[in-house]
What we know:
- By secondary structure, the chain is of the alpha+beta class.
- It has a single domain, classed as Lipocalin (Beta Barrel), CATH 2.40.128.
- It has four helices and nine strands.
- The protein has helices spanning 2-11, 26-29, 146-158, 175-186; strands at residues 31-38, 49-57, 63-70, 76-85, 93-97, 111-118, 124-128, 135-139, 167-168.
- The chain has an eight-stranded antiparallel beta barrel with strand order 1-2-3-4-5-6-7-8.
- Strand 4 (76-85) and strand 5 (93-97) form a beta hairpin.
- The radius of gyration is 16 Å and the shape is globular.
Amino acid sequence: xxxxxxxxxxxxxxxxxxxxxxxxxxxxxxxxxxxxxxxxxxxxxxxxxxxxxxxxxxxxxxxxxxxxxxxxxxxxxxxxxxxxxxxxxxxxxxxxxxxxxxxxxxxxxxxxxxxxxxxxxxxxxxxxxxxxxxxxxxxxxxxxxxxxxxxxxxxxxxxxxxxxxxxxxxxxxxxxxxxxxxxxxxx
Length: 187
C-alpha cells in the first residue's frame, strides 16, 4: 500500500519551483563523477554505459566539463563543454554548453544544471532542471549502495520529478578503476 501511495505522489506533476541546495563548494564539487542513473535524453542515446563527467575549475570561475560514455560497440565518445555559475550566492545553478565557444551567444545552446541534492560529504549529487525534463544521479563511485541510491531518488521525487523514468546506468569498469574511484569518494 505504501508503495502505491508513493507512486501516486511521484506521478503527480508538481506546481512548486524546483529548489537547489543552499550552497555548493565548487572546489569540492570539481573532479570525477559517475552517472548512476538518468532520465533518458536524446543527446545520450549513443551511451550504452560507463558514463562519467569530469569537472575542472578554470581561472575565470567557470568549469570545464568532460563527459564520456561507452557506446554499444565498446568505443568511447567524449564531449567537452563549459559550465558557468548563474547563481553565485549558492553556486548551485549553472548553465552548461557543449557547442563551440563561438556559438555560445545563442541562448538555446545553454542547458540548465541545477544541483538539487548533494550529500554532505559530496559522495553523490542529484542534478535536474527547472522543467523537470532532465535528471541525473551522480556519484564519486560508479555505483551507490541501494539505501543511498533510494535516498537520492526520494530527494528528486520530493522535488516533483517523475522518478519512475529513471534508468540506472550500466557501469562495467575494471576492478582497479572501481577501487581507485572508491578512494576518490572518501576524500
